[in-house]
């Protein structure tokens, strides 16, 4: 098991679109992942569960990974959570 810390950098926090990117990234991982923030913890398999952590800019989180290549995978997740997502505005 590996545990690392991350700080949310995205100006809007981890809202729906970043949550979708993160959950999609971990979808095929065969190990266990737990993300813990001030509002609780999630196994990181659901967009809604991730959003329920209310990860605002500057939020500190802990990422715990157990499984194949756990150290590299955890490091990749830290980088993903610390990404400055720059989604283009949606136009109707």
Write a structural description:
It is a single chain. With 92 residues, this protein is an alpha+beta fold. The protein is built from three helices and four strands. It starts with a strand and ends in an 11-residue tail after the last helix.
Outline type: globular
Q: Helical amount among residues, as a percent range? A: 25-40%
Distance between the termini: 45 Å
The CATH topology name reads Histidine-containing Protein, Chain: A
SS element count, helices: 3
In terms of DSSP E residues, the strand content is 15-25%
Strand element count: 4
CATH class bucket: Alpha Beta
Helix and strand composition category: alpha+beta
Q: How big is the Rg? A: 13 Å
Low-confidence spans: none
Please state how the strands of the largest beta sheet are arranged side by side: 1-4-2-3
Level-2 CATH architecture: 2-Layer Sandwich
Our count of domains comes out at 1
Q: What is the H/E order?
A: EHEEHEH
Mean pLDDT: 93
| Assigned CATH superfamily | HPr-like
Describe the structure using short key phrases.
single chain, 92 residues, four-stranded antiparallel β-sheet, globular
């Amino acid at each position: 098991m590996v545990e690392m810390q991350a700080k949310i950098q995205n100006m809007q926090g981890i809202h729906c679109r970043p949550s979708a990117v993160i959950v999609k990234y971990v979808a095929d991982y065969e190990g266990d992942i737990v993300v813990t923030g001030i509002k609780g913890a999630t196994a990181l398999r659901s967009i809604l569960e991730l959003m329920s952590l209310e990860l605002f800019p500057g939020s500190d989180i802990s990422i715990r990974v157990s499984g194949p290549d756990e150290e590299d995978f955890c490091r990749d997740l830290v980088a993903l959570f610390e990404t400055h997502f720059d989604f283009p505005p949606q136009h109707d």
